[in-house]
């Protein structure tokens, strides 16, 4: 097998791909990795799929017409949907605050030793950004 590290690209179901992609770009600092795809034979449907990326981290946003996510669903505070390992978490924290992201608080060291912040997007997804000690 190859020694090249594997990467992951989570797929998040959203009710409005265009709005989600713009939020991830404008507020979370990601960039579109190609066009927002429209539904085949459904130009009026708007976007059905988009890929955003930041610093090598890729997230896919896919339309969910039948069961849209429920941002108000009851969840434990510790539940996370995506964990992003980053360098220089204080700089990421400052950038997200300046962009208007819903950050839960300043960086805190978790009991397992990783410095972390949490963010919630408009679809109710929770992202944890974490930096290991050098």
Helix content: 10-25%
Characterize the largest beta sheet: strand count, sense, and whether it forms a barrel.
5 strands, mixed
Give the SSE order as H and E letters. Answer: EHEEEEEHEEEE
From the structure provided, what is the oligomeric state, counting identical versus distinct chains? single chain
| End-to-end gap | 29 Å
- Rough outline: globular
Determine the structural class based on helices, strands and strand pairing: alpha+beta
Indicate the mean pLDDT: 88
CATH H level, superfamily name of the largest domain? 2,3-Dihydroxybiphenyl 1,2-Dioxygenase, domain 1
Query: Mind telling me which CATH architecture of the largest domain this is?
Result: Roll
List the uncertain runs: none
Number of H- or I-type helical stretches:
2
Number of E-type strands: 10
Q: How many domains make up the coordinates?
A: 2
CATH topology name of the largest domain, in short, is: 2,3-Dihydroxybiphenyl 1,2-Dioxygenase, domain 1
| CATH class group of the largest domain | Alpha Beta
């Amino acid at each position: 097998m190859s020694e090249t590290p594997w990467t992951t690209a989570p797929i998040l179901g959203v009710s409005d791909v265009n709005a989600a992609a713009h939020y991830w770009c404008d507020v979370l600092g990601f960039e579109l990795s190609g066009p927002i795809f429209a539904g085949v034979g459904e130009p009026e449907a708007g976007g059905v799929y988009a890929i955003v990326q930041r610093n090598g981290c890729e997230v896919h946003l896919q339309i969910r017409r039948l069961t849209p996510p429920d941002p108000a669903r009851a969840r434990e505070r510790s539940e996370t949907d995506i964990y992003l390992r980053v360098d220089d978490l204080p700089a990421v924290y400052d950038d997200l605050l300046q962009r208007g992201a819903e950050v839960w608080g300043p960086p805190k060291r978790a009991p397992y030793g990783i410095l972390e912040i949490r963010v919630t997007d408009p679809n109710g997804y929770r992202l944890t950004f974490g930096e290991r000690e050098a």
